[in-house]
């Protein structure tokens, strides 16, 4: 089993009409053993940008602390909040700095830029940016998520429809993956604010 | 091969570790204390690579005590656990990583809540109601999942721990004779003997 599959995770981000959604499971495991069923993998970077970190749990926390520091410094120096596109390039740079001893996470970024335009992107563990218009998936259930998203996603979904779509995609995908699941958190980012919902799926 | 587990209620945490120090086929010591007192209301149990365990726990113990001396105030359990995780994470990709598994237990005098943090050797951390490290987890998570409730009392936790001992005695290959049982609550940390359960 590779190090990326040691703790288990499933994260997906989708773009809708003037909104984005990012969702993650809540399982923390040690190979087959489940240790925590409330582990946070999606973190707010600004009011309108969230980052999801699938992969090794220790690097999830370490990287989130590093991002928090860099974004706070950015805010102090630039006297404005960081845009999602800028943040994703910052993350890419931070990951490539560790090219030959990488962090074992493959971040997914979802946010609204200053013109309320949706932005989502993902990257691999050494920072190769994957800028998509529809959805980004990551974690041990990524293959399952690709299938679910490809069939369920359609363009210009409103916040409520986007919530339904992303929830169904995530729930169905993690049910076929032993290493992810045990509940899910969904964040819908709209120009008015962020709606966070906790959804209960199969607890196994 | 160490038994290390803990259960937290709303206002107490009870932690159990076995007392054996084994090396291959040899029982070197059977009265080893695998816990490390960090402050009056926070302690951690440590297992893992021999040497790393004492080295890391002494380092953490010293630094936590230094904070208390400098600031005339103890670190809260969450602050302590986050500090420990940070130190372990820094060591992970350095010249000298520490292979230690920890359970940090404490009572927060500010919020009047107990807290238990599971930290593994890769410094992944989770705040949990109950936890175990090592092989005993494969046996004990089942028992704890079944019996635990969020408003468990200290007596309820003691009964749960007795059930845990039963499972280990019946089904685990290693015969643990004696355990270090520690409770932390509003009045501080105290040691219980197996008869007091």
UniProtKB/TrEMBL annotation, chain A:
Enzyme class: hydrolase
Keyword annotations from UniProtKB, A to Z: Hydrolase, Proteasome
Organism superkingdom: Eukaryota
UniProt EC number: 3.4.25.1
Name used for this protein in its record: Proteasome core particle subunit beta 3
The species this protein was found in: Coemansia aciculifera
Gene this protein is translated from: PUP3
UniProtKB/TrEMBL annotation, chain B:
EC number: 3.4.25.1
Entry keyword Hydrolase: yes
UniProt keyword annotations, A-Z: Hydrolase, Proteasome
Protein name: Proteasome subunit beta type-4
Source domain of life: Eukaryota
């Amino acid at each position: 089993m590779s190090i990326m599959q040691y703790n288990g995770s499933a994260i997906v981000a989708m773009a809708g009409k003037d909104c984005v959604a990012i969702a993650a499971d809540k399982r923390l495991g040690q190979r087959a053993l489940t240790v925590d069923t409330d582990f946070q993998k999606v973190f707010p970077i600004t009011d309108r940008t969230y980052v999801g970190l699938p992969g090794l749990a220790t690097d999830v926390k370490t990287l989130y602390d590093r991002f928090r520091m860099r974004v706070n410094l950015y805010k102090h120096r630039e006297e404005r909040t960081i845009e999602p596109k800028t943040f994703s390039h910052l993350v890419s740079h931070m990951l490539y700095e560790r090219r030959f001893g990488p962090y074992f996470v493959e971040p997914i970024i979802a946010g609204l830029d200053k013109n309320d335009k949706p932005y989502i992107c993902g990257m691999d563990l050494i920072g190769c940016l994957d800028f998509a218009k529809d959805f980004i998936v990551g974690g041990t259930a990524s293959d399952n998520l690709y299938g679910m998203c490809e069939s369920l996603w359609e363009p210009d979904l409103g916040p409520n429809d986007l919530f339904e779509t992303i929830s169904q995609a995530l729930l169905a995908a993690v049910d076929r993956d032993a290493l992810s699941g045990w509940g899910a958190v969904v964040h819908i980012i709209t120009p008015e604010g962020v709606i966070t919902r906790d959804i209960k799926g199969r607890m196994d | 091969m160490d038994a290390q587990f803990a259960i937290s209620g709303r206002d107490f945490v009870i932690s159990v570790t076995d007392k054996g120090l084994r090396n291959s086929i040899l029982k070197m010591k059977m009265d080893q204390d695998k816990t490390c007192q960090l402050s009056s209301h926070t302690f951690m149990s440590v297992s893992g690579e021999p040497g790393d365990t004492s080295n890391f726990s002494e380092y953490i113990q010293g630094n936590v005590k230094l904070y208390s001396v400098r600031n005339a105030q103890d670190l809260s359990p969450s602050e302590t656990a986050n500090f420990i995780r940070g130190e372990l994470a820094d060591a992970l990709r350095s010249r000298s990583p520490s292979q230690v598994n920890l359970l940090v237990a404490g009572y927060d005098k500010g919020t009047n809540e107990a807290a238990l943090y599971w930290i593994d050797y890769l410094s992944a951390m989770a705040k949990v109601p109950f936890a175990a490290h090592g092989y005993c987890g494969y046996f004990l998570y089942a028992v704890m999942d079944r019996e635990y409730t969020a408003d468990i009392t200290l007596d309820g936790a003691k009964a749960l721990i007795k059930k845990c001992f039963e499972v280990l005695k019946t089904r685990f290959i290693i015969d643990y004779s004696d355990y270090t049982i520690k409770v932390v609550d509003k009045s501080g940390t105290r040691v219980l003997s197996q008869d007091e359960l």
